[in-house]
Amino acid sequence: MTSPSQEFRLEPATFADLKGWKDDDPSSLFRAMKDCRTHIRNVKPYRTGMAGLTADDLLMLLDAAEENEPQDAAEARAFFEAQCQPFFIRRGDGGNGFVTAFFEPEIEVSATPDETYRYPFYRRPDDLIDLDDSNRPADLDPSYMFGRLSEGVISAYPDRGEIGRGYLEGKDLEIAWAKSKVDVFFVHVQGAARLRYPDGKLGRITYAAKAGHPFSAVGRLLIDRGLLDRATISMQTIRDWLYAHPDQVDAVLAHNRSYIFFREADVSDPALGPIAAAKVPLVAGRSLAVDRLIHTFGFPFFIRSESLKHLDEGKPFARLMLALDTGSAIVGPARGDIFTGSGYGAGELAGTVRNDADFYILIPKAAARRFG
């Protein structure tokens, strides 16, 4: 069952319809495409979304990319023009596409707790299980992909508020401790972080699972209460408000019942982004989080936003990207989250992205015949 905002159709287009395509340089996507190919062939195929595109459809493109290493932007564009057919994603409700952005924060942490470092990042608990239609309790919404197994009974897992009140204490699940629960919350929103230890050691955590509850934006809550202005809201203004109102932090953060669990990940090459839901490293400025229920990981999307200009030195955003991640807040066929990179500067870029955008998906020509 789909909501009106999830209904859509794919309308055939040409590369000439992709405004800004001729100025784009998609050559940095080829390494990620090869990583996707390795994952599909050696680990497992990506799950097919409601759009009906399969990992086998994608392999037509990935196999061709394996044999081609573009020397410049023109060759990279020519490759996609030869291999793919663009389709405009038309929302069924007539609404515009929409993009936000995310990044990999760098957080000061300690391997042990003390009076300064008090707020943990948790590993996945043993009593958290994956849910599907075969084991999901009837009283849990189909959106719940995780639940709690206790004494043979499956139920909803404790939410952010319950975990914040100590549900996981004493279970030896802590990876590291941060100084601020606000910092921890925003790492949950981003889904990954670099961890800077007092001795200078650099670690990384990335998404492992979640408690299963739906994402609820605390920014929207603050707008609805008249505490922040819709016209100027950003990650930075939300963070500033939380720091300025420490007595209200727990209640506001608990509004977002979704809770993220992490795993430790490799950071031997700081140039590579975190490994996200598609199980390959993210590429700064070229990786897109999409609705996993609709879209299949690994497919190229061309995103055009006239109003999003600060990512490209005042020019409208127009880039080919790969769908390599997902997120609880990324819902709908023309909804995307742009990965801007790692560290403070990437966070400053990401925090103010809230823009209408056109979404085109590039489908390998053999598969494109099924869509008109």
From TrEMBL:
It comes from the Bacteria. It catalyses: Exolytic cleavage of the (1->4)-beta-glycosidic linkage between N-acetylmuramic acid (MurNAc) and N-acetylglucosamine (GlcNAc) residues in peptidoglycan, from either the reducing or the non-reducing ends of the peptidoglycan chains, with concomitant formation of a 1,6-anhydrobond in the MurNAc residue. SUPFAM superfamilies: Barwin-like endoglucanases. One of its GO terms (molecular function) is peptidoglycan lytic transglycosylase activity. It is an enzyme of class 4 (lyase). SMART domains: MltA. GO terms for cellular component: outer membrane. GO terms for biological process: cell wall organization; peptidoglycan catabolic process; peptidoglycan turnover. Its EC number is 4.2.2.n1. Residues 106-263 form the Lytic transglycosylase MltA domain. Keywords: Cell wall biogenesis/degradation, Lyase. This is peptidoglycan lytic exotransglycosylase. It comes from Rhizobium freirei PRF 81.
